[in-house]
Design a protein that fits this description.
- The complex is a heterotrimer of chains A (141), B (348) and C (356).
- Chain A is elongated.
- The longest helix of chain A is centred in the middle third of the chain and has 37 residues.
- In chain A, helix 2 packs antiparallel against helix 3.
- In chain A, 78% of the residues lie in helices and 0% in strands.
- Chain A has 141 residues and is mostly helical.
- The N and C termini of chain B lie far apart (52 Å).
- Chain C is an alpha/beta fold and 356 residues long.
- Chain C has 12 helices and 12 strands.
- In chain C, a hairpin with a 2-residue loop joins strand 4 and strand 5.
- Classes of the chains: A mainly alpha (141), B alpha/beta (348), C alpha/beta (356).
- Chains in contact: A-C, B-C.
Chain lengths: 141, 348, 356
């Protein structure tokens, strides 16, 4: 639990900055101007216009952050600061395996492989989510 | 603007075809384009978006990015050689030196990280290996003076972003002509400029081309620019030239319904056309993906006939260099035969 | 169609819109301002089309946005139908906005790419319905029907109402924007270069559509463009802007037949005409230099640097609007009753210093 809180406290900054960047660029789009000229309230502009248009970027970014979190957690566990026994994580498994690397290579290979496959999978998942959220990839007229 | 009767042919494009392979199908961006450019002449290529005019220009310069585009047919004869068959190295020695190009957005052809002096000197020395840096710099300053940049010796050391849009376009023209190119290919050079700046740039291109004898291929969508600058005009639609004529002839006697419609739908400043409707060509620009064999303009044509739906019209010569690709000018017999052939094809 | 005896629908007086230029990331000191609109005044009468024409940086787009209060004007007044917009409270402004709608230039950017066509056109109605500012509240059925009605009126197939903007061409998107602007039955439409991004053949369709809609609904247009021929075609009166100021304002036909301000003359002579015989015979007045940027305060005429007819007096005295006729005003010292051509630079500067 402490691990989650620690990682969250450190990582919200990048996400926040990304969201801010998105909002700042969208603020000046012509369709937001159009909405203002129609008398739309700020709330409506945010929820109806800005959120859906930033969503795809934020979601993709978030899914790509998952591998980064896993890496961070792995490093902490590798160093012994993360998950403690009897709980295991890929990082701690790799940490434990490094010592017996020459004698029992599979103890190292399997967690490393699992982690790699998972990271690739998250990447593709993020791509897929972005395509799903993007109305432009639907059929053209 | 000049039309000498026996001027030398500088560039000849024959049946050029450039296709793009996309997920949605094959886009026949340029589908059989032929024209000739003579020394000192300005040829205009007019068309709207999707007509293939920019791709034609890029194809002549062989600047089409190879996937997804490919020049699949035709010849481009320059100085007797088909430059489509040259190797990339040989082509590079022609680009910038014998055939130069200027673009709509001067920022794309000027490297924002290099000073103007660096870029211009590089261009000159690339094509003239035995010219020293000092000589190349002197020539560049001379070119800048020619295009009207004030204090060229000082300004040549500036970066592109320190110039205004009009000035940047002048620099691009100076760079393009620095090696005394024989052909200048201009792709919408003034579309992004204000009217008063546009007038300056067009006058400059006109002056330089008559001074240096350069042939100019001017691609634009603006019928006014064409009327003022070009000797010969080609009108493009959906990848093909639908009409070609001497400028005066084209405007006085537009033969293709598209040309006619285009000229009539442009609002005129000099006639008080108050509260009248403009002639408008109905419908949308064509979808050039997997175009069926027919005249691509027929859905929007106010004079279309049955045969237009089934076969592409032949090119008819109306005399004095005026050519048009329209069934209205083909003989009855040809039309009937084409219709018959098409019906046979469809039965199969 | 001059209706000078009628009361103007829109009155703009001495409108100024300055955007501060600040340096320093921490202290944000203001070092200057972009004087995008620098004191303009004009009236728009019901049923007419006032065209505003000028090159980039002249302030025409900013003018339109200042009028609709998308930017809060730095100073000056905007009175619409008797209501002062600059000092209006939120509720009054909302009520006024119902009658002032906008059409934008870029058909690709002015529609939210994540909203269906139906939602885009219905949005103004939904906003006003929710705030209970409609004359008669509309049910969702009413709104649906009106959306379909509007789509047909602008030439779109109502079957496409659940499609997204990217599925339409530029011209069709512009029609969607026009339908959206008509949704609340406005009195005036501010059109910011609505046809500049369109192909020539589509441009003609949209211009015809706007003309038809104007006749059918009795609309008033404030039409911005940089293409002189388009402005000529669609406007009843035309105002020419340069560097944030109006240099000439007149009835359309008069302006094109007998332009008075040296800038208007140069602008008209620079614009290409699609007729080779005319083009060959034309005497062009080519202005030297670039279109300057509006970031300096000037004491004299804003056009002084590039003017082919400048006099020393012009360099330090800002010209007011002089009347040529009832409907034709020019901001140029050449048209004052007094002759300034013989006054030297020294005398002019002394006079300006005294007046300051």
């Amino acid at each position: 639990m402490n691990l989650f809180i620690a990682l969250a406290l450190v990582s919200w900054l990048t996400v926040a900055r990304m969201v801010r960047g998105q909002v700042m660029s969208l603020k000046n789009s012509e369709y937001v101007e159009a909405a203002r000229s129609m008398g739309a309230s700020t709330g409506r502009i945010i929820f109806r216009h800005m959120v859906p248009n930033s969503l795809s970027v934020i979601i993709v970014y978030s899914t790509l952050r998952v591998p980064a979190f896993i890496m961070q957690e792995s490093f902490l566990s590798f160093l012994g600061l993360g998950v403690q026994a009897p709980y295991a994580s890929w990082g701690s498994l790799v940490g434990d395996a490094v010592n017996g690397m020459t004698l029992y290579p599979w103890k190292l290979i399997f967690p490393a492989l699992a982690m790699t496959i998972f990271l690739f999978a998250m990447n593709f998942f993020g791509d897929g989510l972005r395509d799903a959220f993007d109305p432009q990839s639907k059929n053209q007229l | 603007m000049s039309l000498k009767p026996n001027a030398k042919t500088v560039l000849e494009v024959k049946d050029l075809k450039t296709y793009f392979k996309t997920d949605a199908g094959i886009v026949k961006a340029v589908d059989g384009v032929s024209f000739t450019v003579h020394e000192g002449e300005t040829l205009g290529i007019v068309g709207e978006s999707g007509s293939g005019k920019s791709v034609t220009n890029l194809s002549v310069m062989r600047l089409i990015s190879s996937p997804p585009g490919k020049i699949v047919g035709g010849e481009v004869l320059f100085e007797g050689q088909d430059i489509l068959k040259l190797s990339e190295t040989e082509m590079r020695s022609i680009r910038g030196d014998k055939i130069s190009m200027i673009f709509q957005d001067p920022m794309t052809s000027l490297n924002p990280f290099l000073r103007i002096s660096t870029q211009m000197v590089e261009t000159i020395r690339l094509h003239n290996k035995d010219v020293s840096k000092k000589e190349a710099l002197a020539r560049s300053i001379e070119m800048l003076k020619l295009v009207g940049i004030p204090s060229p010796e000082k300004r040549i050391q500036s970066y592109p972003h320190q110039f205004s849009g009009g000035m940047r376009q002048r620099v691009m023209i100076a760079q393009a002509l620095s090696c005394n190119a024989q052909v200048l290919v201009a792709d919408e050079p003034t579309t992004a400029l204000d009217v008063t700046i546009q007038a300056q740039i067009l006058e400059l291109i006109d002056k330089l081309s008559s001074q240096m004898g350069t042939a100019v291929i001017l691609v634009t969508h603006d019928l006014g620019v064409v009327a003022g600058m070009c000797d010969v005009v080609c009108v493009m639609y959906a990848g093909r030239i639908v009409e070609k004529a001497i400028t005066d002839d084209l405007y006085a006697r537009p033969s293709h319904p598209y040309t006619e419609g285009l000229i009539k739908s442009v609002p005129r400043m000099d006639t008080a056309n108050k509260n009248n409707r403009l002639f408008s060509i109905e419908g949308q620009p064509p979808n050039v993906i997997d175009l069926p064999p027919c005249c691509p303009f027929h859905p929007r044509c106010h004079k279309s006939m049955e045969v237009c739906r089934h076969a592409y019209p032949p090119i008819k010569d109306l005399g004095n260099g005026h050519e048009v690709a329209c069934w209205l000018y083909a003989e009855e017999a040809t039309r009937a035969k084409a219709l018959q052939d098409a019906e046979q094809q469809e039965k199969v | 169609m001059m209706s000078e005896k009628k009361k103007p629908l829109l009155e703009v007086r001495d409108l100024k819109q300055h955007f501060p230029i600040s340096t320093g990331s921490f202290l944000n000191k203001q070092v200057g301002a972009i004087r995008a609109v620098d004191g303009i005044s004009f009236d728009v009468y019901p049923g007419e089309t006032l065209g505003i024409v000028g090159e980039s940086g002249c302030g025409k787009s900013t003018t339109v946005r200042s009028i609709s209060q998308l930017y809060k004007p730095t100073s000056g007044s905007v009175i619409f139908n008797g209501v002062d917009l600059v000092n209006a409270d939120v509720r009054t402004m909302l009520k006024a906005r119902r009658n002032i709608q906008m059409i934008f230039q870029d058909p690709y950017a002015s529609l939210d790419p994540r909203m269906t066509v139906r939602s885009i056109i219905a949005e103004p109605m939904e906003i006003y319905n929710n705030r209970k500012l409609m004359d008669t509240p509309m049910s969702s059925m009413d709104i649906e029907r009106r959306v379909e009605d509007l789509m047909e009126r602008v030439g779109l197939n109502k079957a496409f109402k659940n499609r997204y903007p990217h599925e339409f061409s530029g011209g069709q998107r512009q029609r969607i924007g026009i339908a959206r602007a008509l949704a609340l039955n406005p009195k005036i439409i501010l059109a910011d270069e609505p046809v500049s991004a369109l192909d020539v053949s589509i441009q003609a369709q949209i211009l015809n559509l706007l003309g038809d809609l104007q006749k059918e609904f009795g609309l008033t247009f404030l039409f911005i463009a940089h293409d002189l021929a388009v402005i000529q075609h669609i406007s009843t009166r035309v105002a020419v802007m340069y560097l944030g100021k109006i240099v000439e304002i007149s009835e359309a036909v008069q302006l094109y037949e007998a332009p008075k301000h040296p800038y208007t003359v140069a602008l008209l002579s620079a614009a290409p005409i699609p007729d080779p015989t005319i083009e060959r015979a034309r005497q062009r007045i080519i202005l030297t230099g670039d279109v300057p940027s509006p970031d300096k305060e000037r004491n004299g005429c804003y056009f002084y640097d590039r003017c082919p007819k400048k006099m020393p007096w012009c360099s330090c005295h800002l010209p007011p609007m002089f009347d040529i006729t009832d409907n034709h005003q020019v901001a140029c010292w050449l048209y004052d009753k007094k002759d300034y051509s013989k006054i030297t630079m020294e005398e002019s500067q002394k006079d300006a210093a005294v007046k300051a």
